[in-house]
Design brief:
With 283 residues, this protein is of the alpha/beta class. Helices cover 47% and strands 14% of the residues. The model has no long low-confidence stretch (mean pLDDT 94).
Length: 283
């Protein structure tokens, strides 16, 4: 399938989703918000891969939300012809619906059963920060930076930056970034744990991220999926709740056959024959 904002390929258990509008700084237009969850959900539902790599093109990773998102749409407005005073009263709720759609688009990566690795080069601006914080693991080039740019243009970031970023780095740093809108370099991001590793060039980064993806793809998909679920649950709950949850998960999801296959393959020095995630319908 052809997309306006992305190129997609699947090879050796790795799905590579590449943002493909460098001339527009890969900004997040209307098609972006529609296509991203569609791609993620299809890869997941059809069990097409074992891990997803999200990368970009051009000098900048993402220039943020396309401001045309908040202007008139080509789509027919079901409320067209409404009296001006009624339209004014509906404005806030219509804006909320738009924000919720964008939030759900990025949450699709968190809800996905597969790990999502993101490779960041150059600027990761505004909505780009919302995007990368919804991924499982972040990598960056030496020249990369993030900025909560919404503050600089008189608004508050609302698509996912704060609920996720405050769980990834110290609260005081989140507040500083938000209040000032300043740029955080890749090295600073690595020092505080937001970025796993920094590479000198875009090419070296993609090579390094693909190597991590290959390591993930070599493991049992059912076990990796369990790890993602357990980590996300533990992040959002108390330690005791996390302990109770993982105990119940393994009581129903632990597969001795997968363990025996992993150990047998290691002993026999062969590739393991793990079970893939089950296919499922897209809701």
């Amino acid at each position: 399938m052809t997309y306006e904002c992305f190129d997609v390929s699947v090879k050796q258990g790795i799905a590579h989703i590449q943002m493909s509008r460098p001339d527009k700084r890969n900004n997040m237009n209307r098609a972006f918000w529609r296509e991203l969850p569609q791609i993620i959900q299809e890869i997941d539902a059809q069990a097409q891969a074992r891990v997803i790599v999200l990368s970009s093109t051009g000098p900048h990773f993402c220039g943020g939300i396309d401001v045309s998102m908040f202007g008139p749409s080509d789509e027919k407005d079901p409320n067209a012809g409404l009296a001006p005073h009624h339209a004014k009263r509906q404005k806030g709720l219509k804006f909320l619906d738009t924000v919720k759609t964008m939030q759900d688009s990025l949450s699709a990566m968190e809800a996905c059963r597969l790990p999502v690795l993101v490779a960041i080069q150059g600027g990761c601006i505004g909505g780009g920060v919302d995007l990368v914080t919804a991924c499982d693991i972040r990598y960056a080039t030496r020249d990369a930076f993030i900025t909560i740019y919404e503050t600089k243009i008189g608004m508050t970031a609302d698509v996912g930056t704060f609920p996720r970023l405050v769980k990834l780095i110290p609260e005081g740093i989140v507040r500083e970034l938000a209040y000032t809108g300043r740029r955080m370099s890749a090295d600073e991001g690595m020092n505080i744990g937001l970025v796993n590793r920094v590479f000198d060039t875009h090419e070296e980064m993609l090579e390094g991220v693909m190597e991590v993806a290959r390591e993930i793809a070599a493991n049992a998909p059912l076990a990796v999926h369990g790890c993602k679920r357990a980590i996300t649950y533990a992040r959002d709950h108390t330690t005791q709740e996390g302990l109770d949850w993982i105990g119940l998960w393994n009581a129903s999801m632990l597969h001795p056959e997968e363990i025996r296959e992993a150990m047998g393959a290691r002993a026999e020095k062969r590739e393991p024959d793990f079970t893939d995630l089950p296919k499922r319908k897209i809701s």
